[in-house]
Amino acid sequence: MLRRTDRSKKVTAVLPAYNAEKTLGRTVADIPREWVDEIILVDDASRDGTVDLALKLGLTVVRHEKNRGYGGNQKTCYTEALKREADVVVMVHPDYQYDPTYIPGLIAPILEGKSDAVFGSRMFARRGALEGGMPYWKFFANIFLTTIANGVLGYQLSEYHSGFRAYSRQLLLSLPLELNSDNFVFDSEIIVQCVAGGYRIGEVPIPTRYFKEASSIGFWKSVQYGLNILWVLMQYRLHRLKLLNFPKYEKVAMAASLKPETGN
Questions:
Q1: Which of 8, 31, 72, 211 has the lowest CB atom count within 10 Å?
Q2: What pLDDT shows up at residue 216?
Q3: Contacts of 198 (CB under 8 A, 6+ apart)
Q4: pLDDT score recorded for residue 171
């Protein structure tokens, strides 16, 4: 069992929330407080009791007056965490689709200085993804898009589409997040930016769980999401070939070139 021995770095969990009242309590209860120093919930103009419940649970709450989308919510999450001196930021979806008890394995490589970003992967053991309720069409689309991304980016990640991930402070400070989408493709843009900056990416296996209360985008929105991912990958390829310039990749590469060397 992992144990946190270094208390010098602040670990913050950020929860991008939208109508999460039914699952928020279970999510927060499973966050290991011996590993997480602060929990920030950013509410994206929910229409239920998410904010009231978050306040009762003692969370730090930031509320959007208007819905800004999944990516827009994350921008606020990371801005607030950095403002409050977080050294490591872990994103936990408050819909309970990702198991918060896996946080130690996610953040330990960052605390130890071995990784700059760590992603929870449901596809390490692909059978487990199906057993956890991932629809077949999402399962095969995940494999297809991941294969293309690995080919374009030159990586060998098992999944690019998990929302359970952790970042170092240095990495987040180097990313021009304001140039990224406010929609679901935001997650993919961050991965491509990590590649553009030469940051160290790690993966840890996590369980898959789909259930009624867990948020999930439908088929046609998933199609749009997939097309957006392909466009992001094409952008990066064009950028690398110097055929077009995309500031969201150029700026992170410039910032990364100024970062101090880190050892393993």
A1: 8
A2: 63
A3: 253, 256
A4: 96
Question: What's the pLDDT at 263?
Answer: 47
- Gap between the Cα atoms of 171 and 168, Å rounded: 5
Residues of the chain with pLDDT below 70 are 212-216, 259-264
List, as one string, the DSSP characters of 105-174: HHHHHHHTTS-SEEEEES-SSHHHHHHTT--HHHHHHHHHHHHHHHHHHT---S-S--S-EEEEHHHHHH
Phi/psi region, residue 154 (left: phi>0; alpha: psi -120 to 50; beta: rest), is left
**Please, are residues 239 and 158 in contact by the beta-carbon 8 Å criterion?**
no
Which string of DSSP letters, residue by residue, matches 189-258?
A: HHHHHHHHTT--EEEEE------TTS----HHHHHHHHHHHHHHHHHHHHHHTTSS--HHHHHHHHHHHT
Beta bridge partners of 38: 12
Per-residue model confidence (pLDDT) at position 264: 43
**Residue 6 CB coordination number (10 Å):** 10
- Are 125 and 46 a contacting pair, CB within 8 Å? no
Question: In the block, which residue shows the tokens 């913050």?
Answer: 12
Domains and CATH numbers, the chain: 11-256 (3.90.550.10)
Which helix (H) or strand (E) segment holds residue 88: the answer is strand 88-91
Alpha-carbon distance values, 205 to 39, 110, 123, 249 (Å) = 23, 16, 7, 28
Tokens 């369980």 appear where?
207
List the structure tokens of 32. 């290991």
